[in-house]
Specification:
Strand order of the largest sheet: 3-2-5-4
Number of helices: 2
Number of strands: 7
Low-confidence stretches: none
Radius of gyration: 14 Å
Order of helices and strands: EHEEEEHEE
Strand content: 35-45%
Length: 105
């Protein structure tokens, strides 16, 4: 199963901006609103939900996506764009999103 990745630079950015210590968890989730991706965008919050999901470890931080939000993050590379000075979420490979309730054709 394809998952998501987090670059070292992105993890360092979150550690600094969210004042995270090694071993803490950041939840990535799909939220309604924002430009692109059919009205959805990435949300980020400190903490681990009680729901099952997938964890990716980078630079001492645990990045977590619940199974219910994996449709949005499958195949996504979370990185830091030095030119823009911000985090970017890029879909790798062929990928398209598997929206909940959407049958792949």
């Amino acid at each position: 199963m394809s998952t998501f990745t987090v670059s070292k630079e992105a993890a360092q950015f979150y550690k600094k901006e969210m004042q995270l210590a090694d071993g803490e968890t950041v939840r990535l989730f799909a939220r309604v609103g924002g430009v692109g991706s059919g009205g959805f965008s990435a949300g980020v919050e400190k903490g681990r939900p009680s729901l099952p999901g997938i964890q990716v470890d980078q630079s001492g931080i645990h990045f977590f996506v619940t199974d219910e939000d994996m449709w949005y993050f499958r195949g996504v590379d979370v990185s830091f764009d030095h030119d823009m000075g911000e985090i970017v979420f890029r879909r790798s490979g062929r990928g398209g999103m598997d929206y909940p309730g959407h049958e792949a054709t």
